[in-house]
Amino acid sequence: MLTLRHSPFDLLERLEQQVNQAERVPAAEVHETDQAYEVVLELPGVDKDSIEVKATDRSLLISAERRSQTSSGSDDAKEGGPIHSEFRYGTWSRSFRFAMGLQREGIEARYRDGLLTLTAPKAQTHSTVVVKVES
């Protein structure tokens, strides 16, 4: 006998949540040169101070928040708020992992006209560690 653990409605609800989350993630473009990686993200309407960039040896993690222009909960916001909105508000994060290591100290970030551009120089030194096997 086949038993369903979730109803079809639960599955549809999860799918809708995943679609809503995917719509919040900004579009990105990644370029590579001999010297660096360049990541460009579309972030229209995002305050520069809400953008956070973290770098590890081979990856970049970018997170930000797009806040609503009206403050929720007040009578003024209800009166002056939009009667229809398709904007997506909230927080999100994206990570990018690269084949080569990054020179973390040299990473530059610029935010202009709704585009965040990160330039991450490739690490020029490669270290190999030889491990002695003991018996």
Characterization of this structure:
With 135 residues, this protein is of the alpha+beta class. Helix content is 17%, strand content 33%. Strands 1-2-7-6 form a 4-stranded antiparallel beta sheet, with no helix packed on it. A 3-stranded antiparallel beta sheet has the order 3-4-5, with no helix packed on it. A hairpin with a 2-residue loop joins strand 6 and strand 7. 8% of the residues are buried.
Could you say which structural class the secondary elements and strand pairing correspond to?
alpha+beta
Evaluate the radius of gyration: 21 Å
How many β-strands, per DSSP?
7
Distance between the termini: 55 Å
Low-confidence stretches: 73-77
In terms of quaternary structure, the protein is: single chain
Strand order of the largest sheet: 1-2-7-6
- The residue-averaged pLDDT reads 82
How would a textbook summarize the main sheet?
Answer: 4 strands, antiparallel
Number of helices: 2
Task: Provide the helix percentage.
Answer: 10-25%
- Which series of helices and strands comes N to C? HEEEEHEEE
